[in-house]
Amino acid sequence: MTLLAGALLITSCASKKDLQNCQLENKDLTSNLQNTKEQLAASNSRVSSLEEQVKELRRTNARLQQSLDKSLTNVSQNNVSIEKLVDQINESNQYIRHLVEVKSKSDSLNMVLTNNLTRSLSKEELKEVDVQVLKGVVYISLADNMLYKSGSYEINDRAAETLSKIAKIIMDYKDYDVLVEGNTDNVPISRENIRNNWDLSCLRASSVVQFLQNRYGVDPKRLTAGGRGEYNPLATNSTEVGKQRNRRTQIIITPKLDQFMDLIDKAPDADD
Known about the structure:
The chain has helices at 2-120, 123-128, 144-147, 159-172, 197-216, 240-246, 257-265, and strands at 129-134, 137-143, 176-183, 223-227, 248-255. By secondary structure, the chain is of the alpha+beta class.
């Protein structure tokens, strides 16, 4: 009996100890479970935060991609614009080179024309004939006293030889037009059929034109007669020397107008 009681006491003690151990183990497990739940909650929170960051990064990436696509489109358009501008510059450069070539050719022809004319004139004629090239145009200026009878618009015999030399030059250069321009001093004139200096300057220019046409066969389609009266003076009219310089007839030799129009037609269009 005593042995049984002792065995029960030992068994009871062992069960109590096991219970305590189980309780401690359960407490530890409960604590670990709580920690695990807290860690899981924290991990879920970080995952949610990271997911939001990923979404925001994707939205930012999409915006950047749109900006990049737009920039690439603009670059492409700019490249097209630059290429177009380069083409226009090249066309302009070609046109400029063409003008330079034309001007060079024109200048060369004008110098040859001028040299040929001055060589054909005598020393006495050169005293009363002035030949110049200005901006690609040849100006032959003749004093009135070598061309016309005093106070008249009729060509005198002395002028015939000089005009024949000028006519030969004009005939040799068929691609040039000829403007004959009369000029006077400011002294009023009043004669039958001549009302004023306008009339006198125009009549004198017309006389030279008809002389070149009728005497030397210059094509009248190339000829133009005009008068400027007293309103294009070279010098002051307050002196006799100045008046003498102003009383002149200019024969102006220029490239044909249609050649200039051809150049304009060849110009690059700025709107292309």
